[in-house]
Design goal:
single chain; 17 helices; 16% strand; alpha+beta; Nucleotidyltransferase, domain 5; 504 residues
Length: 504
């Protein structure tokens, strides 16, 4: 675990002083204060990795060792014979390198054999709020009339056994971050430890023993929620046996009873409701007579306070094309025309894409994830092209972005384009959404169409009325200005004046 994450937990969670942290870590107090101030990345030094002459022959040697292991002892080739065979194939390294590789391979096979089969295990016990277990599983559901393969994030509190399921199309960083945010929100807090396997979105490299090279993005999320991440030994699923069993149980408790859903969001809403319902139905395995929900109610106050959700996006730098598009995952998304041919920052979330530049968000789209190997699709926002239309009004007729105009705008366009100068007039009406509420402009267009006299000037007049139709805020007059006799409208006075004039 990164030292920066450990220091943050000591200070923010355990309320440890800077002096005590300096004593434990061996760092200076100034360095610790710098880490706690934020926006500081723990210094890392590049690890030296020298190439070996055996690297090119390692897969072949591993295959030989595996084949020799299946033979009788007298029929196996010795390490010396394997070295000679490698030399004949062009190996120019030393004999010691070959023997060292063989010893390491045999140790790995022995460790694998220890964990294979059923084996014997030690029962584990967890205190309230101590830990949760996480794992991915693959399941199927019918969404929008299509049977879809899903990646399911599974969480389980180790003490109360309360569990959460959430489905995604992929196992990526942004999906992982989103799953943690929703799970912690439903569970009502954050446990002090999280138990994982060595998934690629968390561990870049598995070292000796418990040594792990943790992914920087995953470490940032762990540091945000202030819990400790622990990783199981390879091929040691029993170390997180609760979640492994939950994966099996969820198939007949959840997925076999799943109905047809209109969207992935509807599926995830149903999953949350189904999980909470099962909390009330299932009995706790270690506390007879109590449901999972009852034990969770006791555990929830022991969880760490839930902070704001982690802003879990993955950032990419993209260049906007001359057609005001950026490319991502074989799809294309529009951005405002003023940013054409410029670099922008693309923030990828689980369900949306956010385009930002110079510290400002300039566009946002719903993320499209294709399951086939098609050429992809293009997602337009017609508002992004209005500045181009003002210079090129003729592009309105066949412009692809304007195929998605609201129905009212389409009807008005069909009328105006039949007139001389209708292109320019329609562009000026569309440009009103840059300065006024789009729904107000659309309402003015609908009223103009209903009147049968649709024109730019008519739309402008109606829009002015709609914008100014709000009643003024009443003003309370001070007591000194209150009238004793309220004025009343009396038109009969005019009749009296007429009679006086006629008499004259």
């Amino acid at each position: 675990m990164a030292l920066l994450s450990v220091i943050r937990r000591w200070h923010l969670r355990d309320r440890m002083s800077v002096r005590e942290i300096a004593r434990r870590s061996g760092l200076s107090r100034n360095t610790i204060r710098k880490y706690l101030a934020g926006n500081v990345v723990e210094p890392r030094y590049p690890k030296r990795k020298s190439a070996s002459k055996l690297d090119a022959f390692a897969p072949m040697l591993a295959g030989w060792l595996k084949a020799e292991a299946g033979k009788g002892r007298k029929q196996r080739r010795s390490a010396k014979q394997l070295y000679v065979d490698l030399v004949q194939l062009g190996y120019a390294g030393s004999y010691d390198r070959v023997t060292a590789y063989a010893r390491a391979w045999r140790r790995a096979q022995q460790e694998l054999a220890k964990t294979a089969g059923r084996g014997t295990f030690v029962p584990l016990i967890f205190q309230p709020g101590e830990a949760f277990q996480f794992d991915w599983s693959e399941d199927w559901a019918e969404i929008a009339g299509e049977r879809v393969k899903l990646q399911v994030a599974q969480f389980k509190l180790s003490h109360s056994r309360a569990f959460v399921l959430r489905a995604y199309p992929l196992q990526t960083h942004e999906m992982l971050f989103d799953a943690h945010a929703h799970a912690f929100a439903l569970l009502g807090g954050v446990p002090r430890r999280g138990i994982y396997d060595n998934m690629k979105t968390a561990v870049d490299r598995v070292g000796v023993g418990k040594v792990r090279e943790v992914n920087a993005r995953f470490a940032a999320m762990v540091s945000h929620y202030l819990y400790e991440a622990e990783f199981c030994n390879p091929a040691a699923g029993w170390e997180k046996g609760q979640i492994e069993k939950n994966v099996q149980d969820s198939r007949h408790r959840v997925w076999h009873k799943a109905p047809v859903f209109e969207s992935l969001a509807a599926l995830n809403t149903w999953l949350e409701q189904r999980c909470v319902a099962l909390w009330h139905e299932l009995m706790h395995p270690e506390q007879p007579g109590r449901t999972v929900s009852e034990v969770w109610a006791d555990e929830q106050p022991q969880l760490m306070k839930l902070p704001r959700p982690f802003d879990g996006f993955v950032e990419h730098t993209k260049r906007v094309s001359p057609t005001c598009l950026i490319h991502f995952e074989r799809n294309r998304y529009s951005v405002p025309a003023s940013y054409a041919n410029r670099p922008v920052s693309l923030r990828v979330y689980a369900d949306r894409l956010v385009v930002a530049t110079e510290g400002q968000i300039i566009a946002e789209h719903k993320r499209v994830i294709l399951r086939s190997h098609s050429a992809g699709c293009t997602v337009y926002d017609w508002r992004h092209y209005l500045s181009v239309l003002q210079r090129k009004p003729g592009a309105l007729r066949n412009g692809a972005p304007f195929a998605e105009l609201p129905e009212g705008f389409k009807r008005l366009q069909a009328l105006l384009l039949k007139r001389s100068g209708g292109d320019r007039e329609m562009v000026e009406i569309l440009a009103l959404v840059l300065h006024h509420n789009e729904q107000a402009v659309l309402a003015a267009v609908e009223l103009a169409l209903e009147s049968g006299a649709a024109s730019k000037q008519h739309v402008l007049n109606l829009l002015a009325r709609l914008i100014g139709a709000d009643a003024p805020t009443p003003v309370d007059a001070p007591p000194a200005l209150t009238l004793v006799v309220e004025p009343q409208a009396d038109v009969s006075r005019y009749d009296r004046l007429r009679s006086v004039r006629d008499a004259a």
